[in-house]
Amino acid sequence: MDPARFALRLFGRVEAEHAFAWRALQALPRREVVADFHCVTRFSTLDNRWSGFSTRDVLAAVQPTLDATHAMVHCYGGYTTNLPLEDLLSEHALFADLHGGEPLAADHGGPLRLVVPHLYAWKSAKWVSGVELLAGDERGFWEENGYHTYGDPWAEQRFSSQETREAWQVRRAVKG
User: Fold this and answer.
1) Which of 8, 2, 5 lies closest to 125, judged by CA?
2) CATH at residue 89
3) Could you tell me if 8 and 25 are in contact, meaning their C-beta atoms sit under 8 angstroms apart?
4) For residues 115 and 92, what is the distance between their CA atoms, to the nearest angstrom?
5) What range does the domain containing 95 cover?
6) Structural domain tally of the chain?
7) Cα of 17 vs its chain's centroid, Å
8) Whole-number CA gyration radius for the chain
9) pLDDT tens-digit readout, 54-86
10) Is the pTM of this model over 0.90?
11) Sign of CA dihedral 165, 170, 175, 176
12) Which long-range contacts (CB under 8 A, 24 or more apart) does 162-168 make?
């Protein structure tokens, strides 16, 4: 993706839509996060140095409506992934354009990818083109194709087939 043609669109449950061109995004304050990166295929890379723009700073350009609870991250190529708005706005989440001090390679999501270190890597969407705020949870491309809706690596929430089992375990625990 040529950065001159890049746009990051913020839309959905917001008071007014906004789009960042590459130069406008680059004018935001930069932030660095060092975090582990966990893939659903059971490999992890430790202490990755990401640099980019706080998701909080980016989303400050729009006023989410009071009913906004989730986000659908849209990517060039048609991919999407969902996550709770609380996770998108977490302290360490950012839109990264550098990894290890180098521009993010296209194979790794360049020019811009989302990084949400406390969730599995498919939630750290590659080739981000937009963020749609939603009034409820909706499954994205990856979740519709077998991946867990939330994706917590510490709970090993890899696949959607686990969600039925998790719901059953919760119901069983509540009944005591």
Assistant:
1) 8
2) 3.90.420.10
3) yes
4) 8
5) 3-175
6) 1
7) 19
8) 16
9) 999 999 999 899 999 999 999 999 999 999 999
10) no
11) positive
12) none
